[in-house]
Structure formats: C-alpha cells, structure tokens
Amino acid sequence: MKNLYLGIVLILTIFCTDAKADHPEHDEVKKMRADTHAPYSIMTDHYHKKNEIMLSYRWMSMQMDGYISGSSDASYTDARTKQSGGNYMVVPQEMDMDMSMFGAMYALNDDITFAIMTSYIENEMKMKRHSDGSIKTMRSSGIGDTKLNVLTRLYESGDIKIHTTTGLSLPTGSISEKDTMFSGSKGTLGYGMQLGSGTYDILSSTTYFHTNSNYSFGVQISGVKRIGENSKEYALGDILQSNIWGAIPFNENQTSISVGSEFKFQEKIDGSHKDISSIMSFAQDKEASGYKRIDLSLGINHVFHNLRNLRFAFEYIKPVYNDVNHVQLETDFEIVLGIQYNL
Ligand SMILES: [Cu+2]
Fold it and tell me: What is the pLDDT, as a whole number, of residue 24?
C-alpha cells in the first residue's frame, strides 16, 4: 500500500504545480469522453495529438491463494508434489503483489506517440515448511523493468481508430532477489518474486477502437518476445494476449462503465535460475510456470472536465478460466486504479 500513497502524492504534486501555471491554450481543450480510453489495465490503448504530453500513475494489486493444477482446483498435497514425483519441503500459501506504474506519453505528431513506463514492485509470499508447520513471509521490492514504446496511428476516420505499438522492455528490474529461508540463510526467491525478466523483451500490440455516440468498444492483440536468456541463465515465457472491452458513457460523458475480457497465454520458463540450487517449493520450480488464463473485468473511468480532463480510472479483474503448468497459486482477483493527466 505504501507505494500507492507515494504515487498519488507525486501525481497530485505535479498536478497542483501545473494547475497554477497559465494554460490559455488548454482552456479551449475539448471535453474528453470518459470512454475514449480503454479499461485501465490495458496498456498503450490510445495515442495522442501532436505535442500532447500525458502523465499517468497506476497502482495494481494482485492477490493469490489456493492452488490450481492444470485447469482444476488442487489440494495442499498436490502443492507439495514435484512433477517428477517426490515432495517439496516448503509450500507457498499466498502471495500479494503491489505495483506502482509511472508513465509518460509524448506525441511527436498526430501519427507517432512515444511512451515510457517504469514501475516499483512489492511482493510478499507466505510459505509453510511442511516438516514442522512453521510459517515465514518472504519479501522482495524494488524497481521493475522499463518499457519504451512507439505508437503509430494506422487509420483514423469517423468512428474508428487503429494503431500499432512497437516497444522494448529494458531489464532494469532485479532477478537476484533473495530473502531469509527456513534454514536461516539467504536464498534466491522464486521466479514470481523476482522484479524483472532479466532479458530485453520486444513488445508489440495492435489496437482497434470504435466509438459511437452511445457506446464504444475495442480489441487489442499484444505479445511479449524475450531476446535470448538473462544473466541467471533463464528466460521467462513469451506472452500472447488479447483484450476486448465495451463501455457506456453517462453523466454528460464524464463517466463510463466498462466490461472487458482478457485472454493471456504465457509459455513456460526456458532454462532455470542458476542461483536456485535446490528447489524448495513450486515457486522456485520452472515446471510450475506458464499458463493460459481468461479474466473478466468491470471498470469505471471518470474525466473531470472542470480539471482539464484529469482522468481517474478503476478496474476490478477476476479470473474465470485458468490452465496452468504443474501446480501454481491461484489468482483470486486484481485491482487497478490510478490517474492520467494531460499537461
Ligand atoms: Cu496518453
């Protein structure tokens, strides 16, 4: 939660500082519709007009508990069993991940928009040692990977907007996070507790946005491709993802409500972390990585027309279908909230 407050304070500071300045040109800025942006979890969903600058802050929180194996609920016993047979010594019980994402966008012209985004991540995983039932909470926190994107407008006419995004993720997030293990000595945390991918990743997406007078909808297809392997001799799985959403504006277009669905396919980890010498739990096991998941979401966007289109957004995301490799913690829900502001 700590980084949520920091993020809000930072953005409000920027907003208040900027609001004092004179913006005669912005007084004529036309009132934005709340649903001109997608639900808030969807990245690079919109481009800008020439010379526009936008700052954004997102706080994302994901809660995981319970176990899933393949596409079925799994038991504690399943969560202890290695894929090759035999048992893990330690069983993860729940995990919380909080992430603050800071972004900036700048439009070179009406066709090309640049976007940069970085994050601060806090992970917490509660583990149980099977032999004596003792519980330990392991933590990691720090800067995540940094994403540079170029958005290119392909088509804009009438109700329809289409753009593509090409980007590079820089490995600024640590992959050598350690914490005190049950043995009392420091050990390398599992893959999900590391803060970055460790690899340079190619990002790409294509977005179709359709706006009518009474509603809007959109589709985005996106992917992440890892380049080679990282310094710890592994690569996270590539990602293929699609999002669809629909939204209805009301309250003189200042507010919109959205429903959305995401399909995400992430491949298994390639190679294995060279500092994980003995695999204590499925969290450190590459066989327990990668999944196919379908989520449903409900969201609210609100644009304050009297605050030069300051935008607030909230989204609640719930998995409805999961198919994982081996056994993994089950995602319970995800919350995304934040603000965007045009300078
Ligand atoms: Cu923007």
Answer: 47
The size of the chain, in residues, is 343
Residue 277 pLDDT:
87
Two tokens at 83?
Answer: 């894929």
pLDDT of residue 31: 87
State the DSSP code for 33.
P
Domains detected in the chain? 2-342 (2.40.160.40)
Please report the pLDDT score of residue 149 as a whole number.
98
Task: Compute, in angstroms, the gap from residue 266 CA to the centroid of ligand 1.
Answer: 27
Distance 233 CA to ligand 1 centre (A): 36
**From CA 199, how far away is CA 144, in angstroms rounded?**
12
Ligand 1 center from residue 45 Cα (angstroms):
8
Question: What is the pTM assigned to this prediction?
Answer: 0.91
Where would I find the H helices in the chain? 2-20, 24-27, 76-80
Cα separation, 278 vs 95, in Å, equals: 21
Cα 110 to averaged position of ligand 1 atoms, centre (Å): 13
The list of the chain residues with pLDDT below 50 reads 20-22, 24-26
